Amino acid sequence: MVRRHVLSAFAAADGAKSVQYVKICSLYGAGFYYIPGTDTCIKIGGWARAEYNINAGGSFNPIKSGAFTRATADNTIRARALITFDTRSQTEYGTLRSYIASGWNSTTTTTAGTGNPAADGLYVPRAFIQLGGFTVGKAESFYDFYVTPAYSNTTNVWGADTGGGGDFVLAYTAQLGNGLSATISAEDAQTRQKGIIGDTYVAGPMLPDFVGNLRLDQAWGSAQIMGALHNVQVQGTPAIGVPNAASTHAGDKWGWAIGGGVKFNLPMLGKSDNISAEASYSEGAIGYVGGGLGSFNIFHGGSNGVGNAADAVVTADVMQLTKAWGVVAGYQHEWNANWKTSLYGAYGKVDYGSFSPAGADWSYSQIGSRTIWTPVTNLDLSVDVMYQKLGTAQVTTANVATTTNSDQSAWQAIFRAQRNFWP
């Protein structure tokens, strides 16, 4: 220690300059620095979290299948970590950017069993390149507008938000001036597939979904209108007893979706206050109405509620597209620098038309509130409570003798601790 101080004193006496091992890059905002020996700037960020979910899956995923008996505790414990790398450099075509977000999670659920370790997994929600208005790779769908994490820890059922898992895109965005932009995008059709009653989607990547939006971002908030085309193509049924025979199948159809959203900043009520809402309608593309939709089968004792999520119904090689609509909204209020509370809700309905079994149509609603305490900078401790209700009257052969059909509901809660370490 003494020797270090002596050397520093000699350096100061000689007027020697200190060596800057990390050169700050101010072109792209806080947190960027130059990769030594290059003109490329990089920012490293991420977060670590731990959570306990009551009557919910990891990341507060709403219950879609549960028995609610003493045999099973429908709770989940999860630890998750994510690290991000944002690299940028200037070219004659504009800013060249690559972005990677990769993480790991460890989850204990009812499927692990007594004495079994938690299920560990690696996931990569983002890996994309941008240049001159083009985006290619795994990003967020350009249909999306409402941002679920802004108001809830929930993996939302209604709403088109794909932010948590990402989507494969090939897109071009044109900046039209004054905060107005337009995007066209080809996206992975499998991300939005919700199944087919009476048949099965063709396996593997199909024709891409075609997505477009017109978006406005200004100081008061933002607004967007969006649309999508989704190809519904089934495998068909091979002829019985005839090896390698061509299958009979329903003809392909194009499903579609249209939606709109708006967000208002409300600084007159609180520093970061805002309110946001989104609505969508679809035929044969219900994943654009409810990105987190899945088939429901919930039991409470002898009472059963069923809701099938499918883009189409096929009967005798004739296809009928499923109709669906939904709305989702959220409001966040900042009490002070340490406390924030949000209120959110959603409602949607699925209509199977004339091909559906008796009472197969169903609805789903959720309402909840989250409060975040930030005792120190970049540490969020939150409690999120939500009520969900499945409205159904579907008759199933499995429950005719032993159960009755009725609407189902459930309360859910989550406690989460999250440490953010981006600049």
Structural class: mainly beta
Number of strands: 26
Bin the strand percentage. Answer: over 45%
What gap, in angstroms, lies between the N and C termini?
32 Å
Q: What does the largest sheet look like?
A: 16 strands, antiparallel, barrel
Q: For the CA atoms, what is the radius of gyration?
A: 25 Å
The low-confidence runs, each spanning 5 or more residues with pLDDT under 50, are 1-13
Mean pLDDT: 87
Order of helices and strands: HEEEEEEEEEEEEEEEEEEEEEEEEEE
Number of helices: 1
Helix content: under 10%
Oligomer: single chain
CATH topology of the domain at 130-420: Porin
Which strand order does the major sheet show? 2-4-5-6-7-8-9-11-12-15-16-21-22-23-24-26
Tell me the name of the CATH class of the domain at 130-420. Mainly Beta
* Shape designation: globular
The CATH architecture of the domain at 130-420: Beta Barrel
Task: Give a summary of the structure in a few sentences.
It contains one helix and 26 strands.
Can you offer a commentary on this structure?
The chain is mainly beta and 423 residues long. It has a domain at 130-420: Porin, CATH 2.40.160. Helix content is 3%, strand content 53%. It contains one helix and 26 strands. It has one helix at residues 2-13, and strands at residues 33-34, 41-54, 65-66, 76-91, 94-108, 119-131, 134-139, 167-177, 180-187, 196-197, 209-218, 221-232, 237-238, 247-248, 253-265, 274-283, 296-300, 303-307, 312-315, 318-321, 323-336, 339-351, 362-373, 379-392, 404-405, 408-420. The strands form four sheets. A 16-stranded antiparallel β-barrel has the order 2-4-5-6-7-8-9-11-12-15-16-21-22-23-24-26. The chain has a four-stranded mixed sheet with strand order 3-17-18-25, with no helix packed on it. A hairpin with an 8-residue loop joins strand 15 and strand 16. The two termini are 32 Å apart. 32% of the residues are buried. Residues 1-13 have low confidence and may be disordered.
